[in-house]
Amino acid sequence: MKEFLLGLRLLLGSGRGTRARFLLMTVGGSLGVCCLALVLTIPAILDARDGRAADRATVVFPGKPERDRTLVLERSDPHGSKPFHRVFIARGTVDTPKPPAGLSELPSPGEVFVSPALRDQLKREPALKGLLPGRQKGTISPAGLTDPNELYAYVGTDRSKLTGFGATRALKSFGTGYAPVPAIEPSTLDILRFTLGTLVLLPLTVFLSVCAKLSAASRNRRLAALRLLGLSAKGTQRVNAAETVAAALLGALLGLGEFWLLNQVMARTGLPGLKWYPADGALSATTLAVCLLGCPALAWFVGRASARAAAASPLSTRRTAAPRAPRVWGGLLLVTGLGIVTGYCLTGLTDRPAQTTGINTLLVPLGVLLTGLGLVLTMPLLSYLLAKRLARSSSLTLNLAMRRNEVEPGSAMRVVTGLVLLVFSASLAQGVLVEEDQILRPSSPSQEYGLSLSGLSKDQQNKLRDIPELRAHAMVMEPPFDPQAEGPRIPARALVATCGQLAKMVRRLEGCVDGTPLRLTDPAVTEEPVAPSTVHLRQGDHRTSVKLHVPRRQALYWGYDITSVDAPVLYPPSKLPPGALPATGSLILASASDPETVRTVLDRIGAIVPTADVDPVGINIDALQQITVIETLLAVGMIMGLVIGVAAFLVSVTDRAVERRAQVTALSLIGARPRTLRLVQCAQVVLPLALGLVLALVTGKLAESSYLVTGGGEVLWDGAGIPLLTVAALAVLIVAVLGTLPLVGRRINPELIRRD
Fold first, then answer.
1. Phi and psi for 113 in degrees, rounded to 5?
2. Exposed, middle or buried by CB within 10 Å (0-12, 13-18, 19+), for 462?
3. I need a labelling partner for 72 at 20 to 30 A (CA). Which of 79, 285, 313, 351 fits?
4. How far is CA 195 from CA 185, 189, 367, 635, in A?
5. Under 8 Å CB-to-CB from 25, ≥6 apart: which residues?
């Protein structure tokens, strides 16, 4: 305890430099703790969403609905790119269940309970009221909603209006042990946690260690003086740990306060695809324990370890003896990790790539972690070897720069490791996005949307066709349904489109001629017998009809796996009477299939026809929401990793400049020009950083490829991400150069040479 108090007294009485260093350590620690709390809280936010979804989930009786029981019918439709959930309830007289979470009572016939977001949407789009028959009785409380933006409604109705639907069931109760549609699938959530840990927690550990080792040379000389005055070796280590623990504890308290403010702001503004209630992001006991106990504990061990050399050999520290060369055991970790990930990459070149099953579920993450950790611990050794090699150069700038890095190779890890890890983690995050993109969206480059023509006016159809993101559009004419029709042949349907429009909706088209009806044939699909049919048309207030025959002349097309282009007849639009539209059929819109375009098109469709039943062919709106959440969380992780990496770099470079003022002053007094000194400072940082970034690019792509190979997707080698990562690495180098140039002061103070 005496040593701890002595450390605090030295902290308060050692001048402005020590107090400034303590403030820098505290602010840096608070930033790190804020990021740590955010990472630890993200799973809690997702769990809270899923928990509320589970509390309101319906539990039904098996089989057909029994008499006098409460009936329930659930509907989930896309409204733009968001799901719109409706739960129709018809009260019964037997075993009436309790109301779901968020409601105080079940709705009676003609009553509607809506979420606040749906209430606001109804004001903007009154046409939506047609989907909610009845009057608004109240709103659903947050306990019954996954997030503030959810479109959800409970609609009370009569039993007679639900008995005709096959999906109607007898309601047993509300609430299950699992969410029907989780925010993120459990397997994906595990991958996301691992990726966020690599993106944030690994750089964060480095950053907190950097903050705990600020002004290491000055502190070591001071600790060596205490050791020479008779303080024990362990006591000297505890004196140093006192300052780091005090800074870490104060920084942890400030960081938790910063996180509380950040949670309040972000919960109200939200992120793309992700919004939550402030209570969801409340600090849990585990998060408080990790931040308030774990960070000071890390600072304690780092503080004691950094003072070990001064306590063991005070005379060497006072005389600034050259430290021993870095050990190679960090390189062994890197080689081991690379061996694992490279082995999995090589299996991707065979006919049977490795899968994420059995022992592979442990080896792949282990290989990635060992590679990242080895990359951190190898930086001092690489910096030492690079400096030793380049120090023999005849260039004065390189000689001065590399001799200093040769003497202090450990400083390279503190300065450049955060940025190196950022590039390594970015590659891994890119692989996760590629893998999830393969799983959650169709492989077709074209995405189609089907809308029934019966609910669309001519003006709405024109507006839908004019959506900028569309690549093509067409109509499907269908004959009216005839329950008396018999026979083995099905009535003919026709696709109304030009050859150019059809070509944009299929992989390949041959033999198409505009202006004449054609028989459409897909060689990959077995043809069914088709009978002639009559299609009714609307021409203003008049009704007319067109007789459809199956022409002999055919056009071959190769369609995508999931498509609406399956009509046996291609009918040219020029053959329709002027202003005529099919009475029954559908409007098909086609766009690119990337998630951003799909979300934009769905939102535009929802704005034009809010009540239309849109069929996004082959796509799941919940999956589209899920990939949005994943992209958002990875973007948040990348931003936090960038903040931590840049903060670690700026703190370390500034600390190096302050620590080396005496050396810079000495060089200035013997005639070194400021330009030379700036180049020396720049070379000391940029050369190890460039070496680390090249290694991060190589190891990151190998780690990403090992993940993609074992993921079982079609994309095993993400070559498209290499240019982006290369540009990011070049940007990091430019930032590093600009960050080091101002660190050589213009004023020369000779007293810095004698100041201890």
1. -110, 130
2. exposed
3. 79
4. 15, 10, 13, 11
5. 211, 212, 214, 243, 244, 247, 248, 251
Residue 337 CB partners (closer than 8 Å, separation 6+): 366, 367, 368, 369, 370, 371, 372, 373, 374, 699
Side chain identity at residue 344, one-letter code: Y
Task: Give CA torsion, residues 201, 205, 208, 213, to 10 deg.
Answer: -160
Q: What are phi and psi of 582, to 5 degrees?
A: -60, 140
Q: Which residues contact 483 (CB under 8 A, 6 or more apart)?
A: none
| Cα dihedral 702→704→707→710 (10° resolution) | -60
Beta bridge partners of 555: 520
Which strands form 533-539's sheet, in the order they lie side by side? 542-548, 533-539, 581-582
* Cα 75 versus chain centre, distance: 29
The answer to whether 348 and 431 are in contact (CB under 8 A) is no
Residues contacting residue 171 through CB under 8 Å, at least 6 positions apart: 58, 59, 60, 61, 69, 70, 71, 72, 89, 92, 97
Strand-pair partners of 571: 496
Q: How far apart are the C-alpha atoms of 501 and 506, rounded to whole Å? A: 9
Residue 472 near residue 505, CB atoms below 8 Å: yes
Give all strands (DSSP E) within 387-469, no chain letters. 446-452
The tokens for 749 are 């103070």
pTM for the model stands at: 0.71
CB 85 within 8 Å of CB 161: no
**Spatial separation of the C-alpha atoms in residues 477 and 494, rounded to whole Å:** 5
Distance CA 614, CA 741 (A): 58
Q: How far apart are the first and last CA of the chain?
A: 27
- Of the candidates 695, 685, 701, 680, which has an alpha carbon nearest to the alpha carbon of residue 733? 685
User: 587: how many CB neighbours lie within 10 A of its CB?
Assistant: 23
Three-state SS at 597: helix
pLDDT along the chain (756 residues), means of 10: 62 62 77 83 87 90 78 82 86 86 90 92 83 88 90 89 75 86 76 75 73 62 68 69 78 90 86 84 88 82 66 58 66 87 85 77 84 83 80 74 69 70 79 69 75 82 90 86 58 86 88 88 77 79 81 85 80 84 86 81 82 74 74 80 76 68 68 73 79 86 83 70 80 77 57 50
